[in-house]
Amino acid sequence: MNRADMEAAVRLYFQACNKVDRDMFAQCLSEEVVHYLATGMHGPIHGIDPVVERWGADVQANSSYWTVDAVYADEQTRTAMCEWTGVKPGLGKVLRGAEVYRFDDSGLIDEVRIYYASRRDETIAANELEGFPYAERGFTA
Question: Domain tally for the chain?
């Protein structure tokens, strides 16, 4: 898998989110994809169909859409990172963030980790993704 393929898969993922198109999701996501979310967002999401439902509900309720600002990819680790902008006209909000994507042997995204460009929450001890196995993956603290 090369960097261009990874970037194309990430961009296709965003198109699928905007169009709420399950077939497009299946072209870039593994059926067993795990989408980790920030604490309080009721994650992680397991599988394509729950991903379609989650982002489809946001599109329906808020006229949400997302744009890709930049994609970076590393062939050695089969990971990519994307900076994005999320627009929610129904709420009058704009969100910015980044996601890390891990690719399986077949070139499909099997993990998404979302990070928002926002202030730290001083009311919680650990500002991290809900349910992500930090210790198992060798992350510090």
Answer: 1
